[in-house]
Amino acid sequence: MKLLIVIKKELLDQLRDRRMIIAALLMPAVIVPLLLFFMTLEPDKGDLRSSVRIIIEKEAHGLKDILRESIKDVQFIQSNSPAETIRDGGAELGIEFARKADEYKEFTLYYDPARKISSFMYEHIHSLLQSSFLDSDTRPDAQLIQRIPIRSEQKNSSLLTLSIILPVFLMVFSASTAMSSVIDMSAGEKERSTIETLLSSNISRRAIIMGKILAASLVGITAVAALLVGLMLSSWFFPSITGGMSLLRIISLSAISLIGIIMLFCVLLFSAVGMSLGLYAKSIKEGTILTLPIIVLASALSSGLIAGDPYLIDTFFLTIPIANSSFVIRSILYGNCDPGAFMASILTNSIYAGLFFMISMYLIKKETVINRS
Amino acid sequence: MLELRGVCKSFSAKKEMVLSDISFMIRQGEVVALVGENGAGKSTLVRILSQILRPDAGSISLDTVSLHEDPGYMKNRTGTLFSGESSLYDRLSARENIIYHARLNGIPKQKYEKHLKLLTEELSLSHYIDDRASTFSRGMKQRAAIARALITDPEFVILDEPSSGLDIIAKDSVKAIISRLKSSGKTVLFSSHSLDEILSCAERIIILHSGQIVCDAPIALFQSGGGKDITSYLRD
Q1: Rounded Cα gap, residues A189 and A283, in angstroms
Q2: Do A190 and A282 contact (CB within 8 A), yes or no?
Q3: Which of B12, B11, B10 is nearest to B20 (CA)?
Q4: How far apart are the first and last CA of chain A?
Q5: By the 8 A CB rule, do B1 and B65 touch?
Q6: Residue B40 to chain A, least CA–CA distance (Å)
Q7: Minimal Cα–Cα distance from A203 to chain B, Å?
Q8: Do A2 and B85 touch (CB under 8 A)?
Q9: Across the interface, do B84 and A6 touch by the CB < 8 Å criterion?
Q10: Are β-strands B57-62 and B2-10 bridged in parallel, bridged antiparallel, or unpaired?
Q11: How high is the mean pLDDT of chain A?
């Protein structure tokens, strides 16, 4: 009951702060679409990964040997529907071929142009096939290698745009709004000298910390919702800002809800980190300054895996908060969200949030910290 | 009855004793003035009684219930006004500030609304009770903060410099509040730099000097024409 009283009061207090309304609603909803208008994307070429899965018929003698020689670690798999298997993340490339008298005549290459590893493999194998089987003297016609991207060019472009910018914007805006609120709720209490009355009240310090973290999380998730709604609407009317397709044509509302759930735990973590910093800081100004590196770190962690593959992640990265959530958001965009990675992201962020909650509990009990002035 | 025995406090940064061997007793319904120069340890003592700071040594009990063993007992029965210019949530109204404190302390709505009405009249808050605290003058803030300290109808009231920054009329209303608390049998400990306030409200005076009690005597000792001079205790 008292927890609800704290939450209600903190939300009322925050709603009356113009800076919060600007930071939580206006900036995410307006600034992001504006930035996108001026943003062009040119993804870097990815490196050839050590392990590559290629869909190929069982009886591809000679061809498999050539591929093995050219690619360090290759796995051959079979599928009746290469495009679907690649879309589901089951392979990086698919090869179909036609033979006449044991001689390779035509090839069809399936690949995912939105995945760097897949695009790179396409280029690599295209030239390999050309040089190995379609010698320029005898068969100069390059059309003998048919290229089938598993998505339309427009969708590719949109996926690339969104997978790069969406995790970064979501993390930066949720971190800045949640932490700005929680700094006002913690360092602000010191600055206004209201902390003394609060601590002398008959309410546990645990409830105070918990109430403030949850209230800040609600502010942060509001910013996330505002950003997503702003992006949905703006990309609906101006699809060019998201590479040609609107957000709602790329992913469903339920997938957007999954992103919201992932972000809820990120926001909880940011609020808990902000609470620790705010309790330590002697003023709002100091607290705000202390949160800046966290926002930069959130930005770096959310963009760190952009160069990686939205279908594959090392288990190690799943233990890094924010980075794992960023990966999950990208995999949701690609329609290939792994439930294990989803749960790992929620669990990791919750554990880190719990850790910072414990730090906050330690700080609020420490007289030298509470009386810092 | 409030009882302090051998309370000591030092801050690790300074390493010097802010309060040294503080022992006194305040009976139920007694009004005691805590006097001392700036830095004498008055606010530290108030913070210890309000459980914001923990004493390094000594014991505190209210109605023989130890603060250490049952901190909630004293919190439920104590209302504190802390010193300082502003201690309100600026974006909340005076009413919201006061009610927030009442609800945190588990006061039922019916009780705090009745009490708020009384305090609003007593402290002349009615004209601006629903205005945001950010628009208040220092005096208005102080009156709202006093109302907040008293909204729980506490048995033991601690007022740290209640008339600080107030105009003459507001100072009078603070005096009236203390008198009303006294007549309703509340125990009051207030600190003040105003001799007039001390002499007119207190029954007893405790003088702190460099963290030690240098005088604990009935106010009558200082009131009569040939009475002692309080300031003489504050000089080295």
Answers
A1: 9
A2: yes
A3: B10
A4: 32
A5: no
A6: 17
A7: 6
A8: no
A9: no
A10: antiparallel
A11: 85
Q: How far is CA A352 from CA A200, A263, A315, A320, in A?
A: 29, 14, 17, 10
Please provide the size of chain A in residues: 373
Tokens linked to A333: 């965009």
Chain A: residue whose CA lies nearest to B73: A202
By C-alpha distance, the chain A residue nearest B105 is: A202
List % helix, strand, coil for chain A (3-state, nearest 5): 65, 10, 25
Which chain A positions have a beta carbon within 8 Å of B60's beta carbon? none
User: Which positions in chain B touch A16 (Cβ < 8 Å)?
Assistant: 91-92, 132
3-class DSSP assignment, residue B24: strand
What is the Cα–Cα distance from B89 to A189, expressed in whole angstroms? 8
pLDDT tens across A26-74, in order?
667 766 665 555 444 344 444 454 578 999 887 777 888 888 888 888 8
DSSP 8-state code for residue B134: G
- In this complex, the residue of A197, A370, A371 whose CB is nearest that of residue B82 is A197
Tokens of B101: 């404190």
Instruction: Determine the Cα–Cα distance for residues B3 and A345; give it in Å rounded to an integer.
Output: 54
- And the tokens for A342? 């989803």
Per residue in A267-288, pLDDT (tens digit) is 999 999 999 999 999 889 888 8
In the A/B pair of chains, how many CB contacts fall below 8 A? 80
Best CA proximity match to B191, nearest among B37, B56, B51, B10: B37
Q: Which residues of chain A carry a pLDDT beneath 70?
A: 18-20, 22-23, 26-27, 30-50, 134-143, 304-308, 372-373
At residue A26's C-alpha, the angle toward residues A22 and A31, to 5°, is: 120
DSSP state of A50: S
Using CA atoms, how far apart are residues A66 and A140, in angstroms rounded to an integer? 20
| B103: contact with A, CB 8 A cutoff | yes
In this structure, the strands spanning A93-100 and A51-55 are parallel
How far apart CA A279 and CA A213 sit, in angstroms, is: 12
Q: With an 8 Å Cβ cutoff, is A201 touching chain B?
A: yes
Q: Are A43 and A164 in contact (CB under 8 A)?
A: yes
